[in-house]
Structures are given as structure tokens and as C-alpha cells.
């Protein structure tokens, strides 16, 4: 992989990407007519720009405002602009991933955006409780260090917000999309082991008999 491309995946360059995209989208009269169009981003963007637990990410996952999610013509125009921005800045055509929402139901998309608005912060981000289960479901088939690193940091943040360990059953039941696979016990066992080695305690509350 080109070292230049890797260098461009830092927090500073993510901001440059998004500023260029915002300008390009605003410069398209047909797209501008629908403004404002909000997007939220989970995964790597959160890790690099918000948690800062890693220095770079391969791309930016983007979920577009549910109000326009079914407007195929608008989505096509936006995708074209995204590709053009990537080419103009030599970031490649796949610097932003707008297909990440294909598995989201419309109610789930609306719920995510509602929560993002309630956060009232400049960084439009998916709720932390939704990123963690998504990463956990990938754990059995993924050996990606960054996935594990992200899960640890997000779990620790949730535990701090909760002022204590999380209910294991509650994590397994998280299913905003309505279509998600229940997180296997063995996956949670693996997560608890890794978390314990890093932070010295269990991320899950003891089950009451």
C-alpha cells in the first residue's frame, strides 16, 4: 500500500477530506437544493477523530440522512461528488464508504440520527452503544487489531459513563436494527479476557444467582 495514502489517513487529513467534500457538495446546485444534508460516521472516523486511540483509518464510513436515504438520484449525485473529491486530492475513489448503511433498516437509521442530534456536538457520530456490538459481532471472524482496539476503548468509555461494569445480557440484546445476530457468549468471554488484561477488571457485571 502506498505510504502517501497511509499518511493521508490521519485526523488532520480526515478534516481536510470532509472540508473538501462539504465545499464540493455545496458547489453542486442540484445537491445544494436539498441542503442541509446530514451524515453520521461510525468506525474509523470515531477512533481517529474522537477517541484518538489510533492515528489513522483506511476510509470514512458515511450514513446519509434518513430523509434522503431513498432518493436514488440524489444518492447517485452525492456518490459521484465523493469519488471526484477523492480523485482531486489523490486520496483514491474509495476514501469514503457510503455503502455502509445498506444493511440498516429505515427505523434504525432514523433512530441513529435522532441520537446523534441529541449529542449536540460538532462530530456527528453513531451512538457508542451501537458501534461496540457491531464490532463484537465481527470479532469471531476478524483478526484485525484495530477492531479489537476500538472495542476496548468504546467499552471502557461506556463503563465510565455507566459508573460501573455493563450488564452482559444487555449487551447481547442490543439490536437496534432488528436484524442483527445475537453476540455469542464465547465472543463476550474473549472480550472480557482482553479487557481484563488491559484494564485490570471485568467489563461485565457479575450475574446474580
Task: Output the keywords.
mainly alpha; 4 strands; 10 helices; 209 residues; two-stranded antiparallel ribbon; two-stranded parallel ribbon
The average pLDDT is: 75
Distance between the termini: 52 Å
- Give the biggest beta sheet: 2 strands, antiparallel
Which outline best applies?
A: elongated
User: How many helices?
Assistant: 10
Query: How much of the residues is beta strand, in percent?
Result: under 5%
* Fraction of helical residues: 55-70%
Low-confidence stretches: 1-8, 121-134, 137-143
Q: Compute the gyration radius: what is it?
A: 18 Å
Strand element count: 4
Spatially, the strands of the biggest sheet line up as 1-3
Order of helices and strands: HHHEHEEHEHHHHH
- Estimated structural class: mainly alpha
Domain PH: 1-26
Protein name: PH domain-containing protein
Question: What's the helix and strand layout?
Answer:
Layout: H1 3-7, H2 11-27, H3 29-32, E1 39-40, H4 44-51, E2 60-61, E3 63-64, H5 72-88, E4 96-97, H6 106-119, H7 128-138, H8 145-162, H9 168-173, H10 185-199
Parallel strand pairs: 2-4
Antiparallel strand pairs: 1-3
Helix pairs in contact: 2-5, 7-8, 8-10
Short description, anyone?
This protein has 209 residues and is mainly alpha-helical. The protein is built from ten helices and four strands.
Structural overview:
This is PH domain-containing protein. InterPro entries: PH_domain. The protein has 209 residues and is mainly alpha-helical. It is 55% helix and 4% strand. The chain contains 10 helices and 4 strands, in the order αααβαββαβααααα. The chain has helices spanning 3-7, 11-27, 29-32, 44-51, 72-88, 106-119, 128-138, 145-162, 168-173, 185-199; strands spanning 39-40, 60-61, 63-64, 96-97. The chain has a two-stranded antiparallel sheet. The protein has a two-stranded parallel sheet with strand order 2-4. It is elongated. The termini are far apart. Residues 1-8, 121-134 and 137-143 have low confidence and may be disordered.
